[in-house]
Batch of 4 targets.
Target 1
Amino acid sequence: MEPPTRAVFDLERVRDTVAPVLASHGITLVDLEWITERAGWTLRVTIEREGADDAGGGVTLEDCADVSRDVSSVLDVEDLIPNHYNLEVSSPGLDRRLRTAAEFARFLGRTAKVKLARPAPDGQRLLRGELLEAPEGQVAVLVDGKRIAVPFADVVEARLVFELTAKPKKGQRQGKEPAKESGQKKQLAEAAPRSGSKRSERGSEKRK
């Protein structure tokens, strides 16, 4: 199946349109993507709860479903996207992507994987380790006990690494608290199908 022709529309207008909807739920926008898949085009909305301090963003499946319903309604009214598409609303997940310098700073001390466009000073293109403080315009990672700093512009992709903490044996002190069950999996909801299409088990449906 050939991928559909890319739709021409203003993604920033879509961003501005959904922002008040998210705010009404106490939710902030992490990312907005327009991507093509075998099933067609998808508008992917990644959200987190305002003030959340966990990597998963503090949102539940119910939050995603509520936001998906209301975003779907406002996009129908505004009619900003001219072709068929799927709407997907999800949390960042515990392996969330890091896209901005602010996000790197927010998750200092956490383990991350950082893929580089060119080798780091030690020759590595993929750094895995603890995120450290770094001067503006740089990213620093503690890899095998060695601090490696690279330009932020060289980062192709970066993600947090979810590490499940083992249950301590009797008599041992527990270190980090294990992640809460509700945050261990990426929460995701998709808008319901329209125009007589059948609802799937995941609740996905095509818009327009």
Target 2
Amino acid sequence: MRIPHDIEAEIYFLKPEEGGRSTPVFNDYRPQFYYEGHDWDARHVYPDVNQVNPGDTVRAYLGFLSPAEHWGKLYPNMKFEIREGTRIVGRGKITQIIELEASANRAKKTNA
């Protein structure tokens, strides 16, 4: 199943000495997307690379597991963190909102 491209973001993955991961991540990585004091599940797609190493900055598409919770709250240039539990492994900013509204509408219809 295709991962929705709810938002596009630029993400910097911290190096181990900065508290980040020591191993790479790949498409369908599912860390927490952290903003406004809450963690949210989001699946990642990296369209330009096969793997993302610590210290890399990449373009990513994120698909939220609960898109309706984010519609109207996210905006371009908004900063966020990528976390594994309470550990920050990356920092990013949203570059554009793409399919979030459509994903939110589908989720509302499914839950109605």
Target 3
Amino acid sequence: MKKTYKGSCHCGAVRYEADLDLSQGTFKCNCSICTKTRTWLATVPPNSFRFLAGSADLTEYQFNTKNIHHLFCKHCGVRSFGWGEGPEGKFYAIHVTCLDDVEIAELINSPITYVDGRHNNWQSSPIEIQHL
């Protein structure tokens, strides 16, 4: 069932709300940035995301194809969400570990799909996932 979560960076300067159904799954990617930051994401369409505060506190990082806008707080450095454009349009990528009001049990029970972003093979799981 979809639920509205509040999310933020560590210092609280960047805040948002997102409507998610964590039981529908999350994902982890093995691309270079996701591996280095141990990213755990859920995606939502634009109508399920509401930015509440901190636009002036965000800094953006892009690399490779520059399709994904990796956003982070310029004060505490935490990446609480980002956005990108996919075949079905714009989406927001929510870092589920930055949801302030998520129950640990919800994260434990959320299915995880592993994707091979390192090789631009988004429909397949990487050979090794233990480090993700």
Target 4
Amino acid sequence: MLRRLDAGFAVIGDTQFLPGYSVLLTDEPGVQRLSDLPRARRMAFLSDMELLGEAVERACGALDPAFRRVNLEILGNTDPFLHAHVWPRYDWEPEHLASRPVWLYPPDSWTDRRFALGPRHDPVRAEIDRRLGVLYAAHGAQGSAGG
């Protein structure tokens, strides 16, 4: 876990074929869709997603000059709980995938040990968490540090 936010938990992804990939998980058990939440909680979740997206953008931009942008997605087609994906995108990605959804990457991108989250990702994890903490504090929230 990176950090507890207002409406969920920011975590770094268990696969890192795009370094910095992160996920926002709802803190409401049983919630499958954004529309399952009352409007105020929806807005809090979307605000947390935006903060995590900006933190990933700033961290990955500082760590890799080939960083291009982030993609934010709420899909829910596989896992039956509300979560949002934050995908950093880079200029070094294969040309045939660079402008396409990450879901078109080969299936082994999610399972190959080469891409598994590990100690070599500590710098990007720490930088995302640091930037998320700064952004969260600037927005007047009272988040707690993760581990």
